[in-house]
Each structure stands twice: as structure tokens, then as C-alpha cells.
Amino acid sequence: MNIKRKLIMVILLFFLVNIPLSTYESLDPSHAFSPRILQKGATGEDVIELQARLQYLGFYNGKIDGVFGWRTYWAVRNFQYEFGLKVDGLVGDDTKEKLIRASKYDRNYVLEQIRQGRDFTYYGGVPKEQQVERGNNQQAVQQKPVQTTAVNVPQGYSQNDIQMMARAVYGEARGEPYVGQVAVAAVILNRVESPSFPNTVSGVIFEPRAFTAVSDGQIWLTPDETATQAVIDAINGWDPSGNALYYFNPNTATSEWIWSRPQIKRIGKHIFTK
Amino acid sequence: MLRWIIIGILTIALVGVAVWGYQEHQEKNAILIQAENNYQRSFHNLTYYVDLLHDKLGTVLAMNSPRSLSPQLTEIWRITSEAHTEVGQLPLTLLPFNKTEEFLSNIGNFSYRTAIRGLDEDPLTEDEMKTLEKLYEQSGEIKRELRKVQYMVLENNLRWMDVQLALVTEDQQQDNTIIDGFKTVEKNVKGYTEGMANTALNGVMEEPEEQNVQLPGKKIDEDQLREKIHQMMQVNEGTEVKITETGEGSDIGLYTVSFDQDGEHAYMDFTQKGGYLVTMILNREVKEPQISLYQGMQKAKAFLRELGYTDMDAYNSVQYQNVALYNFAYTKDNIRFYPDTIEVKVAMDNGEVIGVSARDYLIHHKDRHISDPELSADEARKEVNPNVEIQEENLAVIENDLGKEVLCYEFLGTLGNDTYRIFINAGDGFEERVERLKQTEIDFGAAS
């Protein structure tokens, strides 16, 4: 009798957790990390598993978001220290094996919460339904691919800064080769550094008459992935323009003054100058 | 009857168009006035700040005690920054006004550096006082010129929208008082900066480091460069390799190499002297990751080794979708040299190195004589905020706020949920820099 009741409870619990799942994938006990070594900066499903397992053991208190950031890094190191492993912050075979042996990972539960965009935690020994933020269970179930809920951004910049620069680059140089787009982004950053220009990215972009794309409204076009990549490259230190502060299209340039600037090089249709 | 109906309809249409046109006209005017007002505000603010700057510089000259000097110098720093912002709001980009902006930011730098250095122990030198006097005089002249322009703007109701128009149409005949006024200011400032070559201000001007770079090696010619490229990477037979030289504006003479092959566009910059790789960008579509961030790092390291950079240590790695980025710093005797950095990008689908940026390394790298740290790690640790839990430590050389290279203890520590990087000067224990490390952000697109 007692056993039966327990069984019912378990089944009920099981359904409770999995109600939003339209297709139920069987819990695969053998599922564990791919053989790749994880290190700080990595993203993806392996990192979700890593964070979940570390949280299960109480080493990681941050959000399970699939990005191996600083908090995950310290959690890994603490884990390695406690379990007598080499403390290097790298998640290789030894660390993975110890983790798998010490913790449980309910992949369906974790991925489902991420898919639903819920706030949740995954501590061991706490019933799962207490770890999920209630309220938005009504959301339609979408079978979108699991993605990380955070992104890496270069130090000192937010996604929105990148987006704004990408708009400027796209408006100014969308027909240009990739290198030309990186160079335009680099010019924006060189201006931020230069004492003769405003000191912020938005100040430089929206300086009156600085960029034609801003004056004629092309900046409000939606940038493509290439422009965004070009901006990230430029922020990370690539500068094919050779430290230029200006550039112009020789076919359309109206100002005589711009021709008097010492020229550095030509990329695509643009001439880059000091 | 029909005729009257048509006349009626046409009349109504005519009135309608007239009303619509009038409204559009009103709207356009309202927007123009608003834009004009923005320009006017910036301009009048600018003149006000320059005036104030002149005043404050005068006050500083008459001051004696460091205790009142420091706040005044900080105030000057703030005013220059405000003035600088206002210049940035005016449609002056096509007008040469750089020298004035640089002049403002140099005053700012000078006052900031003197204000923070602790004037109690280290008072202003004779030279610095002379510099201040000069700055006072020169800011006075700028102020006079700007006030003159302002007077004419107010007297004749001059509009900045006209300046914009004049600049766009490049109408040389049309004589615009505002443009002329600003040109006069610029000409004067240019005069001072040339005449100030030997003053103390010279030391604080941001020196274009690139101009002083001495790279070892001889100038190479295009044939040698071609050979080098073929050694470095697989170039198919028949691929046209374009090589161009940079123009006079480039601080370092460069060769730019570009070619297309197998759906990949390659772009590289080499120094003419010594033939060092400065920038490399290989542009192609990168597919789903097949290798790990760690394997990519090994590839990046191997690539650098082939280029001759043996003592490089990766201090940061980040994955951006299918591309891995690594920051390498020159490391010798367990000291990390943060000025000498190289960034490497690796495609995670096949491990190919698709980007290198070695500019910082080439500009900063030199033989250095690093003396042993005077403080021990434990002594330096005491200078760190006791609430920060230190996790890692090592020695590093960084460029401090004054642009000098200093040997520091680098501590990585956590406080609450955040990770910090703290540099403590290994000579005197000064806390040179504290950074909050932030590398990830919620994906707003995914969260919604």
C-alpha cells in the first residue's frame, strides 16, 4: 500500500515536472559531456550541463545560462580544489568524470526550463518544483532549439553598443568588403580615443555631419550579421585602417578639405586618412 | 449643374491641399527651429565654458595652498570635458577645428594629472606654473575670439543651420561669420601648440606612439614579402596576390596584401621594415564548431610560434558563436606584459587561424630591464581591499594612468558575485588599477 502510494506520488511528480513537454525524451543516464575540453569563454550545451552539475553540488550559485564566465570559472576551481584535482579551471576528462560521479544531471528538466525562459535553479536535494519560478506555465510550448541565455561581450561594451555601432557600419559601408567594414568600425573607435573627437561611441556616431549614414537616416536600417561581426572584430583590436580618423569615398566626396588629409590606404571604395 | 459640382470638388481639393501644405510647412519649421536651438545651446554653452575655464585658470595662478589647488584643478578638468562635449554637438566636423579640441583636452589632461598626484608632497614645479600662465593667456585669447563670434551671432541673428548649409555646399564665396570666427580660433591655437613645444604641457600630450616605433630588421621588398606569404600559408597557384603600399598618412610604413581563393578573402598588413605581420583577416563563412576552445588555443599558440612569437601566454579566451578569440600577452620570467598583446581569432569548424592583430605588440615590445619587486606578494596583498577574496596572483607590467609602464602584482579576486582584477604597484604598493571583469550579458533576444 505504502509503496503504491509512493509510486503514484513519483509518477505525479514526474508529470508535474514534464507537463510542458510535448514530446518526452527518455532520461538518458549515459548522457554526459561531449569529449571537448571546456575552458573560460566557452558557450553551448556542455556549459549548461557543467553549470547544472556544479550547482547540484552547491559550487555554482549563478544563473545556468550556458556561458562559461568568471563565476563558473571560480566554481570549477573550487570543485577541483575540493576533489583533489589539479586546480587550473580547465574542464578536462578528469574533472568531468569526477563531476559525473558526484552529481546528477536531469537534462530534460534543465533544458526545458531554459526553453521556457524561466528563472530556475538546480540544487541537489531540493525538490525541483520549488526551484522553478511559478507563473508563466501557460506559455505555449515552442520546440525551439536550446540556446544559451547569455552571450559573451567584449570587456567594456554591451550588446546594445555593438548593435549601435553595427548600424553605423551597415549604413556607411554595407556594400564594402568585410575588411572595409572592420576598418569603418575601427575609425569610430579611433575617434573615441582621439582628443579631437567626443569620448563616447554614441557621441562620435551622432556628431553632427560626421557620418552621412546618420545625416540621411540610413543608420536606422537593420544591420546584418556581417556588420555585427566587423564591429566585434574592431572592438577586439583589429584595425585594418592603420589608425585612421577619417575616410571618404573619392567618387562622392564634396569637401575639398578631406582631400588634404594625409592618406593611409584604400580599402574597397573608401580612402582612409589621418 | 455638373460643372458646378466639379468646381466645388476642385475648390475643396485646393483648400485641402493648401491646408495640408501649410501644416507641413509649419511642422518643418518647428523641427528646423528645434534643431537650430540645439546648435545654439551647444554654442553658447561652449563660449560659457571657455570663459569659465579662463577664469579658473586665472584663479589657480593666484592660489598657494595645495589643499585648494587640487579641487580647482579637478574643476578645470571637468570644465574642459564639458566644453569638449559641446564642441562635439556642433556641426563642425568638416571644419578644421581639431587643434582647438586637442588644446582643450590637453588642458584637461594636464589639470587631471597635476590634481591627482598629491600636491602636498609634490607641489607644482616652476615649469608647470609657467605652463599654467601660458594656458591662462591662451584660453583668454580663445575666449575673446569666441565671444566675438557670439556677439555677431546675437547681433545679426546668425543661424547655425546656415553654417551647416555653407559647409555642405562648400560655397567659398559665401562668407559666413561663424565659420570665419572658428577658423580664426583654430589658427591661433595652432600657433600656440607649435610654440609650446618645450613646455611642461608637452609631456602630457598624447604622443602618437606609432611614430616612434623602431622595428628591428631591414626594409623588405615585394618579392621577399611574396616569399614570406607563401611560407606562411597555402596560396594556390594562379591566385592573384595584390600588394599595395600605404600612403604618407600611415605612421608605420605597411604593405597591404589581399587575395581571394576557395571562397575566402584574405587581407594582411605587413610592416615594410622587417616584414612583420600586423593585421590578418581571413573572411569566410564559419560552420558549426567541431573543435573546443581549448584545442583552438593550441592552434593559435602554434601559429604564433611559427611567426616567431614564442613567449606568448593566453590570458583570455572567448567564444563568439563559431569563432574563438584569444588574447595573448608577452610573458617572460613569469611576468606578464599587458602592453605587448596579440589577438588571435580561430575558426572553430576546422581550427584555422582566421585573424591576427599584432599592432599593440609591435608598438610596445622592447627590451626592458625589470628590477625585482620591492614588495613581497604578501605585502602587496595587504593593499587590496580586505573584502575581496583573492583567488589568483601573478606579476604583470601595465601602463598606468600617466602612461608609464609599471611592475605590479596582479590579483584576481571575487567580491560578492563579481570578479575583479586589481593591480598593486610592486614598488610602492599603490593601487594602480581596479577593473570589474564583465564578459557576459543576458541575451536580451533569447530572453524575450
Task: Provide the number of structural domains of chain B.
Answer: 3
Q: Calculate the terminal CA-CA distance of chain A, rounded to whole Å.
A: 86 Å
How many beta-strand elements of chain A? Answer: 4
Mean pLDDT of chain B: 83
Structural class of chain A: mainly alpha
| Major sheet details of chain A | 3 strands, antiparallel
CA radius of gyration of chain A is 26 Å
Helical residues, percent of chain A: 40-55%
H/I helix tally of chain A: 10
How would you describe this structure to a colleague?
The complex is a heterodimer of chains A (274) and B (448). Chain A is mostly helical. Chain A has 2 domains: 18-23 and 33-131, Muramoyl-pentapeptide Carboxypeptidase, domain 1, CATH 1.10.101; 159-273, Arc Repressor Mutant, subunit A. Chain A is built from 10 helices and 4 strands. Chain B has 3 domains: 2-205, no CATH class; 222-364, no CATH class; 377-437, Nuclear Transport Factor 2, Chain: A (Roll), CATH 3.10.450. In chain B, strand 6 and strand 7 form a beta hairpin. Chain B is extended and about 90 Å long. Chain B starts with a helix and ends with a helix. The interface between A and B is large, with 71 and 81 residues.
In terms of topology, how is this protein built?
The complex is a heterodimer of chains A (274) and B (448).
Chain A: H1 2-18, H2 45-56, H3 70-82, H4 93-102, H5 107-116, E1 150-152, H6 159-173, H7 178-193, H8 201-205, H9 212-215, H10 225-235, E2 246-248, E3 263-267, E4 270-273
Antiparallel strand pairs in A: 2-4, 3-4
Helix pairs in contact in A: 6-7, 6-10, 7-10
Chain B: H1 2-62, H2 66-89, H3 98-116, H4 126-156, H5 160-169, H6 177-195, H7 201-204, H8 222-232, E1 242-245, E2 254-261, E3 264-271, E4 277-283, H9 293-307, E5 312-320, E6 323-332, E7 335-347, E8 353-357, H10 359-364, H11 377-381, E9 389-399, E10 405-415, E11 418-425, E12 431-437, E13 440-442, H12 444-447
Parallel strand pairs in B: 7-9
Antiparallel strand pairs in B: 1-2, 2-3, 3-4, 4-8, 5-6, 6-7, 7-8, 9-10, 10-11, 11-12
Helix pairs in contact in B: 1-2, 1-4, 2-3, 3-6, 4-6
